[in-house]
Write a structure and sequence with these properties.
The chain is an alpha/beta fold. Helix content is 50%, strand content 12%. The protein contains 18 helices and ten strands. The strands form two sheets. It has an eight-stranded mixed sheet, sandwiched between helices. Helix 3 links the parallel strand 2 and strand 3. Helix 4 packs across helix 7 and helix 12 packs across helix 16.
Length: 418
């Protein structure tokens, strides 16, 4: 294992601990306000569900200047009886700035390396800004690995119907169609994984690439599925974080995650071309209804951004999309808000056409990826209009129909891929 990225004091700490059963990592960057709650939840999860296991909590920090590491080091659970815990086994705690390219992927690499050095059996990573994490999350992310021999545990959350629109409209449907596993939240941010899979991740030469900056979530999920590791998902309830207006500027996130998705299509084209059908994965945990925070949307602004894109980016799109879709985009641009609609089949063909254009290097990759933003915002506006009066189950059924369209049109992708 390449240990260049670990500091000497971390090697010393690893030598003191020697081995661990469970490692949970929390990547952070200026999260002093929220990380104490996450640390307490992880420690309570260790004490409540794994009282006899040797556990380690790692905070891999990206150079916070707000005292995040100090908060982690000083956070304890003073009164274990208040959370009905009677087996106090204090976990080991490692808080360290990571080395390497700034980004979440580099933070994860440090966690993987420490887990590997400690020969951990089971690991998890959780976001540092979670307001909804409970001790049960640690059980749900770790137990399927220890007791069920799974290698990868993806999160399953209930989310507001307009939260997670990049996942719902692109990343879940295309990942499912390509690799054949119905992992509902492939970029959820909170995952469990085996020590074996952590070691496998470390063998991949991605740590000096964009994966180290961003794209780590979809990379972890896709790498696990495409390499035939055993995958399941655990229901964690609500993921409560700072909600984002889906019409706001998500272009950077879209650029990052779609770029990683397209890169992975290159890496695993021999895998996904052979997949003809998707299969459900085992879902662990008791599912229940949760209260969700509202997500506000500004439809007029979204449609305006779409129309501006049609005016400014059409010359780029003409090199990527069929004449039929170009004609459609011109027509929908003229529609009043009440009639604005981008159907599933058109949307799927747009995404597959962009994937093919990236593969064939038709234009500069960054220009290609950034030009999709107005189309994504237009599709999101169409989805909001269509589901305005729909409840959660009806919205999920519409997402299911979109997934089936991605699967049905996969032949279009393969024919054009070449």
């Amino acid at each position: 294992m390449n240990k260049i990225t670990l500091r000497k004091e971390i090697h010393d700490k690893i030598s003191d601990i020697k081995e661990a059963d469970i490692v949970v990592g929390i990547p952070s960057y200026n999260n002093a306000r929220t990380i104490s709650h996450v640390v307490r939840a992880v420690k309570a999860g260790f004490a409540k569900y794994f009282p006899d296991k040797k556990t380690v909590l790692i905070n891999s920090d990206g150079g916070s200047t707000d005292g995040t590491i100090e908060v982690v080091q000083n956070t304890t659970i003073e009164d274990f009886q208040s959370i009905l815990l009677y087996h106090r086994v204090e976990p080991f705690k490692i808080a360290t700035p990571y080395l390497g390219i700034p980004g979440k992927g580099s933070a994860f690499r440090t966690i993987f390396e420490i887990a590997s050095a400690l020969n951990a059996k089971a690991c998890a990573v959780v976001d540092s800004d979670l307001r909804s994490i409970t001790p049960e999350w640690i059980e749900l992310l770790i137990k399927p690995i220890i007791e069920g021999n799974f290698d990868y545990v993806a999160p399953l959350y209930h989310r507001h119907k307009y939260d997670g629109t990049i996942t719902n409209s692109i990343i879940y449907p295309i990942t499912r169609a390509l690799y054949g596993k119905r992992v509902r939240q492939p970029i959820g941010g909170d995952f469990g994984f085996s020590g074996k899979l952590a070691n496998f991740y470390l063998t991949k030469g991605v740590w000096e690439t964009d994966v180290a900056r961003y794209g780590i979530d979809i990379w972890m999920t896709t790498t696990a599925i495409a390499n035939n590791f055993r995958v399941c998902q655990s229901f964690l309830g609500a993921k409560i974080h700072d909600p984002k207006d889906p019409g706001a500027d998500l272009s950077e996130m879209l650029y990052q995650v779609l770029g990683s998705t397209f890169d992975l299509m290159e890496t695993y084209q021999d895998v996904w071309k052979k997949v003809t059908i998707s299969q459900p994965v085992l879902t662990c945990g008791f599912q229940y209804a949760v209260g969700l925070e509202p997500v506000l949307v500004n439809l007029d602004r979204m449609i305006d951004k779409f129309r501006l894109g049609v005016k400014e980016l059409m010359e780029i799109w003409k090199g990527l999309l069929s004449q039929e879709i170009i004609d459609f985009l011109h027509r929908v641009e003229e529609l009043p808000k009440e009639e604005f609609y981008i159907p599933d089949d058109i949307w799927v063909e747009i995404i597959y056409s962009f994937a093919t254009a990236a593969h064939k290097k038709i234009i500069n990759k960054e220009h290609l990826l950034r030009s999709i933003t107005p189309l994504y915002i237009g599709r999101t506006a169409s989805f909001v209009i269509e589901t305005w009066n729909s409840d959660a189950s009806e919205v999920e059924e519409k997402i299911e129909q979109l997934c089936k369209m991605f699967e049905d049109k996969k032949s279009f992708l393969i024919e054009n891929w070449g």
